[in-house]
Amino acid sequence: MLLDGRIAVITGGAQGIGYAIAERFIAEGARVVIGDLNFEATEAAVAKLGGSEVAKAVQCDVTSAADVQALIDAAVGWGGLDIMVNNAGITRDATMRKMTEEQFDQVIDVHLKGCWNGTRLAAGVMREAKSGAIINISSISGKVGLIGQTNYSAAKAGIVGLTKAAAKEVAHLGVRVNAVQPGLIRSAMTEAMPQRIWDQKLAEIPMGRAAEPSEVASVVTFLASDMSSYMTGCVLEITGGRHI
């Protein structure tokens, strides 16, 4: 198994891509600590994943450094921290004309500051162990920019810069920092799109379909494992060929 005996922290792990990552990590032999704002949903996710032997639930607001530290401490108290996945995110889509300052700040805080909190605090533990893998979840929106997402696109582009800078700082300490940029992923949120919007996005994808969350989880698992041992500061697109 690729992650046998390792301990991972996943923010926003109660549903969607985060949950799929947790599921795959456990299948590969890891134990996972899931942090999410919705504690009831997080507890339910832990139960579905197999219970307390393989997963722990922690309520966490990633914009709070204290909350993220408590999340990491839960992993360390369980035996260590080998993998950190900064996945938590929200959307507050609106055109620039209609977007409020609060909507902009909320998205930047959760995605970019939340990712910085997780990267900084995880690296602080991993550098002492001289090993560890941090994976940050960006988005293809951070590469191309999408209408109605000046906040989201800015945050996701910022995660790329953060990943590259952090990777340079900690590479000599045995800590790797990489990112992924998913495209159209099948989820409750995307399937709620109007059909014409869905069809428009689908038409941009050479492979002709959306991805399943498990396909993102596979790439994250690769970056978390020793199979990517000589990769750091990389950004892998998971888009079916969209925007190439």
UniProtKB/TrEMBL annotation:
Ketoreductase domain residues: 6-188
Pfam families linked: adh_short_C2
Keywords on record: Oxidoreductase
Source superkingdom: Bacteria
Molecular function as annotated in GO: oxidoreductase activity, acting on the CH-OH group of donors, NAD or NADP as acceptor
Gene Ontology terms: biological process: fatty acid elongation
Cited InterPro entries: KR_dom, NAD(P)-bd_dom_sf, Sc_DH/Rdtase_CS, SDR_fam
Classification via NCBIfam families: PRK05653.1-3, PRK07231.1, PRK12826.1-2
Similarity section: Belongs to the short-chain dehydrogenases/reductases (SDR) family.
Protein name as annotated: 3-oxoacyl-ACP synthase
